[in-house]
Amino acid sequence: MEHPLFSLSTRPDRRILNYTHNDTEITVTPSVRGLATIHDKDILIFCISQLMAAVNAGRATARTLHLRAHDLLVATGRETSGDAYRRLRDAFERLAGTRITTNIEVGGCEITSGFGLIERWEIVRASKGGRMVSVAVTLSEWLYEAVLSKSVLTLSREYFSLRKPLERRLYEIARKHCGRQEAWVISVDVLLKKSGSASPRRVFRAMVREMIAADPLPDYHIEEIEGDKICFSSRARMIEREVAGQGGPSLSPATLEKARALAPGWDVYALEAEWRGYWHASGRPRLRSAEAAFLGFVKGKGEA
Which residues contact 90 (CB under 8 A, 6 or more apart)? Predict the structure, then answer.
């Protein structure tokens, strides 16, 4: 999430990408089909969510996952048309063909290695019309070890509704660096570098300003501030400030732990922010038990 491993281009991108920031070095080499895109990353996010659910439930895990293609498409907000299955197959090809060489630290160890994002994939079962029904995906050992060491962060479910590549990339950067802080500031130059955008600086700045006007990111608000900098602020904090001094619901750490058990794999802080938003939008009604109301909301999300 911190470093640009995926292309933001909507056309085949066959550039070799070289990225250096502080002590991290990354080279991303495409296949003849081009670099894996940030929309291809949906497949990895889905695979990681399945692995994390198994880890949290204490079930056995393996690098090879067996997935229903339809479930993957639905979970990542995609159509289930014949063309969507064809695009899914192309995404598997790009993920398997893109090679990464890096010294990113995983599980407390810095290891320089080269790998593909997925080691292999295969259609296990197809429909009579040739459409994939179930698929087996073998993750790279590097990615698998990152998941087992819990070097992952949850994303808002609304992430998949972001259609513009730069919107997705800036959300990832905000999620990684802002987290639960009230705000996080970055210069335009460094943001351009971290985004992986191939656009000139002036074009990138214009795109960010468009995004500021549209305010599309879940969980985070963006604004331009003095000194040629961009500020990301947490919407949860914004809601908390709005209701401060007006009887805003208070939730204990124990309640958040219960919420994690009710909705494994979800970000409880994002759920808390969403719940507070509903409470605030409905006129801040008096709650007999804020904790029971929140856990009921979370339970509904988990069951859905």
Answer: 33
Which residues touch 6 (CB under 8 Å, ≥6 apart)? 35, 36, 37, 38, 40, 41, 169, 196
**Chain segment 171-198, per-residue pLDDT in tens:** 999 998 887 678 899 999 999 999 999 9
Q: Within 10 A of 86 (CB to CB), how many other CB atoms are there?
A: 13
Identify the bridge partners of residue 122 per DSSP, sorted by sequence position.
136
Residue 15 DSSP label: P
Quick: pLDDT tens for 115-131. 888 999 998 888 777 77
The Cα–Cα gap between 9 and 91 comes to: 13
Q: Work out the end-to-end distance of the chain between its first and last CA atoms, rounded to an integer number of angstroms.
A: 27
DSSP conformation class of 94? H
CA distance 139 to 143: 6
Distance separating alpha carbons of residues 259 and 211, to the nearest angstrom: 32
C-beta of residue 212 within 8 angstroms of C-beta of residue 223? yes
Exposed / middle / buried, residue 143 (Cβ in 10 Å: 0-12, 13-18, 19+) = buried
In this structure, are residues 6 and 44 in contact, taking their beta carbons and an 8 Å threshold? no
